[in-house]
Amino acid sequence: MNSPVWQYLSYLLYPFALLYGLVLWIRNRLYDAGMLSSVEFSIPTIAVGNLSVGGTGKTPHVEYLIRLLKDRYRTATLSRGYNRRTKGYQLAGAGTTAADIGDEPMQFHRKFPDINVCVGEERMLAVPQLLGDRPDTQVILLDDAFQHRSIKPGLNLMVTDYSRLFTRDHVVPMGRLREGRKGYHRADGIIVSKCPAELTASEKDNIRREINPLPHQQLFFTTLQYGVPADMLTGETVNIPQNARVLVVCGIARPEPLVQHLRQKHGHVSLLSFPDHYYYTRSDLDKIRREMEQMDGQGPVYIVTTEKDAVRLHLLRDIIANMQLPFTVIPVEIAFLFGEAAEFNRFIINYTDNALLAAYEEPPGA
Question: What pTM was computed for the model?
Answer without folding.
Answer: 0.91
